[in-house]
Each structure stands twice: as C-alpha cells, then as structure tokens.
C-alpha cells in the first residue's frame, strides 16, 4: 500500500457525525410520507443543483435556471458551448448512477466508462476521455489575467497512475467487503486519494463527485439523490480546497493526516442531510393540513403511483 490509513483518528466528533448520518439513513427507509410525484420533484431540484454546483466548481458559468432549461431540451443533443457540453454529460452520468447504482460494480473499467460518458459531448476531450492521463496535470494557480503563477499541488505521474488506481480501487472493495472501516470513512479516503492521483487528463473533480454519489448509494444511503452534496461543496468551496490540500500533501508520507478532509467531508454530508430534513418537514406540514379525502387520495397515490381521474372517483 502506498498510503497508510492507520493514522486515521476516530474521534468523538467523527463518531458523532457518522452516527447522525446513519440514524437518518435508517429513518429514510421508514419515512414513507411522500407520494412518488413529490419525490420526483425533490430529485429533479437536487439533480439540477448538483449538476450546476459540480460544473461551476470547475469554472462553468451556467445558473441553475439555465441548466433546468437545458435539461428540458436535452433530447436535442446539440450543445454549443463547453459549459453546456459539461452539463449535459454530467446530467447523463447522474441519471445512470441514480437508476443503476446497484448494477455498477466499483471497478476501474466502470470508472473509465463513467469518465467517457461524462465527457461524451465534449469534442475537445474526445482524444483522452475514458483513458488515464498521458501528460502531467499538476494543479496550478493562475493570476487574474489567466497566467500560471505556480504549481499548487503535484499530482501522480502518468507512469504511476495505472498502478495507483488499481491499488486504490482494490483497497475500496476489500475494505468494504471485510468491513475494516465504516463505509463513510472508506468513501472519504477514496475521494481524497482519487483527487490526489488525478488519474484523468480532465474532469477529475466532476468524476470524483459522481463516484462519491455512486459509493454512497451502493452503501445504502438511498436518500442522496434528493439533496445535493455538490451544492454544499460549492457553498464552502474555499474550505473544500483547503481540506483537500491539507490532507493530500501528507498522503504519501508515513503518517498521513486524514483528519482535515474527513471532518470536512462528514460535515458536508451532514448539511446535505439537514437540507433534506427541512424539505421533508415542509412536506409533512402540507400533508397534515389536507382534508380527509385528500389524504385518502394521497395514500392511493403512494400505493399506485400516478392516479387517473377515474381511479380517484372509485
């Protein structure tokens, strides 16, 4: 192993955050208060927020309302700007993840396929999509005019990348299967190491957030499509990058400092969960004020999905 997880500290704060998230994970299964159409509405809003935030973190300028309009016409498959191409690719991959997470085994081939799908509409990325990098892609700082002023973070070399990715993916699967660490800690460590490797020429940030969602869904956190984690990251972008850098600079040492990133990541998940709790409470209040007939219709809708007028009359 080229990184050591023994230095991870399971502090009371870490335990408290994990416990709170797992409590909601269990409660979500038994909520059962929303009809399918309301859940679909929550998911659409969260998806738009996720797409918008994840692409804006990487420099896109599209607003959530512009993204909503783009998604309404996505069948056209003609996207003029790079921002639109990135949004369309991200939307397609998120739909795949939400619909087929249980079928997508966590393998290097699937990671490469998701990267290919992420950049499917981007002609600029056609040469390298779905393949590990062949040129260095160190993270650099730029001045206001766009001139590079220095390297902020040195990523893995193209030569080392395939071996490091095999090691990382194997570690995730073995550690998950053998229950050596809590899934949230495994996902947290995967994300920060993946971004430290920066395995693809472009699209690593967006793909890391896609893979985070995939791993959360595969670990039973089935509520994540209904509240945007990417939105929380966008709102705390400076803290996000600082936590990444603080941990990444130590990963290849004998005693990596996982704490900055793990704490940031768990708090972001907590905020994601809290936003969904607020939305659910609003829905409950609306349901509580409905007359008896409306409640009966609501129960039928929960059982059968969409209802026709004739079904309601019966």
Task: Tell me what you see in this structure.
The chain has a single domain, classed as Fido-like domain (Fic-like fold, Orthogonal Bundle), CATH 1.10.3290. 62% of the residues lie in helices and 3% in strands. It is mostly helical and 314 residues long. Helix 10 runs antiparallel to helix 11.
Map the helices and strands.
Layout: H1 12-31, H2 36-57, H3 64-72, H4 82-100, H5 108-118, E1 139-142, E2 148-153, H6 161-177, H7 183-197, H8 204-218, H9 229-235, H10 237-248, H11 259-288, H12 292-304, H13 309-313
Entry summary:
The protein has 314 residues and is mainly alpha-helical. The chain contains 13 helices and two strands, in the order αααααββαααααααα.
Low-confidence spans:
none
Task: Output the structural class.
Answer: mainly alpha
Number of strands: 2
Shape: globular
Taken as a percent bin, the fraction of beta residues is: under 5%
Gap between N and C termini: 64 Å
Gyration radius, in Å: 21 Å
Q: And the CATH topology?
A: Fic-like fold
Helix fraction by DSSP (H/I, runs of at least 4): 55-70%
- In spatial order, strands of the major sheet run 1-2
Secondary-structure element series? HHHHHEEHHHHHHHH
CATH class: Mainly Alpha
Overall CATH architecture:
Orthogonal Bundle
* Number of structural domains: 1
SS field, number of helical segments:
13
């Amino acid at each position: 192993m080229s990184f050591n997880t023994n230095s991870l500290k399971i502090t009371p704060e870490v335990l408290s955050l994990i416990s709170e998230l797992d409590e909601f994970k269990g409660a979500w299964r038994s909520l059962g208060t929303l009809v399918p159409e309301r859940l679909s509405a929550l998911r659409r809003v969260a998806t738009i927020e996720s797409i918008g935030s994840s692409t804006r973190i990487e420099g896109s300028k599209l607003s959530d309302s512009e993204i909503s309009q783009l998604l309404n016409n996505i069948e056209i498959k003609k996207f003029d700007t790079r921002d639109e191409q990135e949004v369309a690719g991200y939307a397609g991959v998120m739909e795949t993840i939400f619909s087929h997470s249980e079928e997508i085994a966590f393998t290097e081939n699937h990671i490469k396929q998701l990267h290919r799908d992420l950049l499917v509409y981007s002609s600029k990325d056609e040469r390298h999509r779905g393949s590990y990098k062949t040129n260095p892609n160190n993270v650099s700082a730029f001045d206001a005019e766009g001139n590079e002023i220095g390297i902020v973070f040195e990523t893995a070399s193209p030569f080392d990348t395939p071996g490091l990715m095999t090691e990382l993916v194997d570690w995730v699967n073995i550690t998950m299967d053998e229950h050596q660490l809590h899934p949230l800690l495994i996902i947290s460590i995967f994300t920060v190491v993946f971004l430290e490797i920066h395995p693809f020429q472009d699209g690593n940030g967006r793909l890391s957030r896609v893979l985070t969602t995939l791993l959360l869904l595969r670990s039973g956190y089935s509520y994540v499509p209904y509240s945007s984690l990417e939105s929380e990251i966008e709102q705390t972008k400076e803290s996000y990058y600082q936590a990444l850098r603080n941990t990444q600079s130590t990963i290849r040492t004998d005693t990596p400092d996982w704490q900055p990133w793990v704490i940031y990541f768990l708090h972001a998940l907590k905020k994601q969960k809290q936003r969904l709790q607020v939305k659910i409470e609003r829905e409950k209040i609306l349901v509580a004020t409905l007359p008896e007939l409306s409640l009966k219709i609501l129960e039928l809708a929960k059982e059968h999905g969409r209802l026709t007028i004739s079904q309601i009359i019966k």
